[in-house]
Amino acid sequence: MKLKVYVDRMSQPSRAVLIFCKVNGIDFEEIKVELSKRQQLSPEFRSINPLRKVPAIVDGRFKLFESHAILVYLASAFPGVADHWYPADLSRRARIHSVLDWHHQNLRRGAATFVLNTVLAPRLGLPLNQQAATEAEKILISSLSTIENIWLKGDGRYLLGGLRPSIADLSLVCEIMQLELLDGKDRDRILGPHKKVQQWIESTRNATRPHFDEVHNVLYKVKTKLSEQRSRTTLPSKM
Amino acid sequence: MKLKVYVDRMSQPSRAVLIFCKVNGIDFEEIKVELSKRQQLSPEFRSINPLRKVPAIVDGRFKLFESHAILVYLASAFPGVADHWYPADLSRRARIHSVLDWHHQNLRRGAATFVLNTVLAPRLGLPLNQQAATEAEKILISSLSTIENIWLKGDGRYLLGGLRPSIADLSLVCEIMQLELLDGKDRDRILGPHKKVQQWIESTRNATRPHFDEVHNVLYKVKTKLSEQRSRTTLPSKM
């Protein structure tokens, strides 16, 4: 039975799992769970993931959620996946776990909370919270500095000095990609000083093309819509 | 060269790593990094963990931080560790990763932020933040409900229906143990309704005795001190 992958392409961990499957030639069926329509609350999806979050997978009778756990499982269970994504070498593997563990309370917390409270909340029927955005921006900028100065230290193109990408590169880059939705000034202020981070995003995009842009296409469309809305609100008044 | 484990026993992930090493007969040297004396900021420790957090380990020339990554590494690299801690079976292992990933933004975020902002902040020279405590309590109670109703569903004594503990049991129980520092009323209100969680804490304590209580002893001492302080402040006045 084909692997089932439950995703909303507007969710950054969903995009990471989708890109991973496509790049590695894993035969899978993509099943859409639209968060804006609250489809994650349906009884059908609840039987897949009682925590009602995407992504989730079903492999035969085995159900799994949490994107990092999914990436580790897919890299281990599907024999066609190249070693660099999740190395068999224990110390290299351990350092990838270290980055993935760090991600949750740092980059993910900062980026997701910031984008939610500056851009996305109204689309989900939620209020914008300025204080939450301010706190999240600090965590986000500190996280980008850690990536720039610690995880990307050395000559490798990827995290931890890697010459080829791992599941940690894919997960973290997909997280950062949501900053595309920000107003250009905000994005430049936050990402601008982090030159290595910018190069690393491009390296990861190139290593996973054409799937990277194909899966991010929905994000690019929302970005265009938001830009049009912003330029309409800043047009000179006829008064 | 003996494994070096850098810890502060007042840190719950430090305690999880220490208990794991002791229960599994891993030969190691415990090196104290006292957070209350800001020893994690020293140049020596920075060369071990540039993020300046405990726990961290050095195994030969290999340095590693983030407690979940450390537990996975130790369970994989030390041949004497029983399979139940981190099963070789891919689907059981994947579900343990799923719990560990969930932990970061849920139980850990709720418990650590709540205890910091109700009890520990003054000991670390920080102000108590009532709003942060209120938000953290919601996350904490929701996380305990998830453990009670989802992760502890079924007949097993441990998470995911396990008959013996895994690294996820150890990590999550150590996180919850910091609630010992709360005022009795707060602790009863938060933990009281979660009967399965209470049984599971006892099961994990029993499965790892005597090391569990020995490593938690520092926490029990602080608990006694805090209780004495509370009873002094509620003594009838002589006025």
Concise summary:
2 copies of one chain form a homodimer. Chain A has 239 residues and is of the alpha+beta class. Chain A has helices at 12-23, 43-48, 67-77, 90-120, 130-151, 167-177, 184-191, 195-207, 211-233, and strands spanning 3-7, 28-32, 56-59, 62-65.
Compressed to H and E, one letter per element, the order of chain A equals EHEHEEHHHHHHH
Task: Give the oligomeric state of the chains in this entry, treating copies of one chain as homo and distinct chains as hetero.
Answer: homodimer
| Individual helix count of chain A | 9
What is the name of the CATH topology of the largest domain in chain A?
Glutathione S-transferase Yfyf (Class Pi), Chain A, domain 2
Can you offer a commentary on this structure?
- Two copies of one chain form a homodimer.
- With 239 residues, chain A is α+β, with helices and mostly antiparallel strands.
- The model of chain A has no long low-confidence stretch (mean pLDDT 95).
- In chain A, a hairpin with a 2-residue loop joins strand 3 and strand 4.
- In chain A, 57% of the residues lie in helices and 8% in strands.
- Chain A folds into two domains: 3-81, 3-Layer(aba) Sandwich (Glutaredoxin); 85-233, Up-down Bundle (Glutathione S-transferase Yfyf (Class Pi), Chain A, domain 2), CATH 1.20.1050.
- Chain A is globular.
- A four-stranded mixed β-sheet of chain A has the order 2-1-3-4, with helices on one face.
- Chains A, B: It holds the Pfam family GST_C_2.
